[in-house]
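In the laboratory, one determines a bound structure by crystallizing the protein with its ligand and collecting diffraction data. In a computational setting the workflow is compressed into a single prediction: the sequence and the ligand go in, and a structural description comes out. We illustrate the idea with FE2/S2 (inorganic) cluster.
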Amino acid sequence: MCKIVEKREIAPRTKFLKVFAPEIAKKAQPGQFVILRVDERGERFPLTLADWNKEDGTITLVFLEVGVSTRKLGELGKNEVILDILGPLGNPTEVRNYGVVCVVGGGVGIAAAYPIARALKEAGNKVVSIIGARTAELLIFEEEMMRFSDEFYVSTDDGTKGYKGFVSDVLKVLIQKGHRFDLIYAVGPAVMMRAVAEVTRPFKVKTVVSLNPIMVDAMGMCGACRVTVGGKMRFACVDGPEFDAHDVDFGELIRRQMAFLSEEKMALECWEANKRTKEA
Ligand code: NAD
Ligand code: FES
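The predicted complex, in structure-token form:
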């Protein structure tokens, strides 16, 4: 059981939790994730680590409340406990001095991009960050990302802050203006990561994405996180979560992410109805 020591809403439906999990904090590295179960009837779901502190033994989780599990997690308050958190899982980001690195974060994925940008900066890279959200109030981790960026760009889909458009549009403009990148790193919705891959493909810039398929065991046994990379079947939980973006079959990833949408919608409706009954 892991106790929540800090809880904040950092954007609408976006929660920031600091959780006491010293064994995970001790070993955590950029790019890794945890699998959680909120309570004994809960499903297992992955969250990428947004931060950790070896000294006070905490890890930071940032998530958008979308389905039953993230809604339940978002309802827990300070000093309440999460039933179990397994991690750190997945292969860490390959952090080294590449030269000029562009880190692209979309939506709640910005929080997952943050420790990667920080580690790449600390490894001596010049870090150019592009972060984007649908609208200004959904932008998160701006100050954190700015702190570890040599150049920093913001976009919103509706133009309420920064460049009006997608993060991939900003990246395209920078490349067309002559920016030269040795590595591009993208975290966010699969459609965004696909768009980034298509921007960089003609320029042959190495592009790494952190995939977010459905996961169950996170041990490489259940097959839930199966993705096709370079024509080969890979399991994101043990072979990833990071892969070469130009080799990923994003169409399949997006189809598999949506496989249980109607069941997820029904589960949420039942959970909300039960909650209303209990509250009445
Ligand atoms: P969102 O749908 O609000 O999109 C965020 C940003 O991504 C947009 O502002 C835009 O800049 C870009 N984007 C969206 N659609 C695009 C498109 N078609 N083409 C180009 N760019 C596009 O994101 P959200 O609702 O905050 O959801 C965040 C997503 O990030 C979730 O799907 C979550 O699973 C994922 N995520 C992934 C990881 C990971 O490790 N890969 C970690 C955390 C979150
Ligand atoms: Fe089961 Fe990856 S989550 S194989």
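The radius of gyration is 18 Å. Keep in mind that any predicted model is a hypothesis to be tested, not a measurement.
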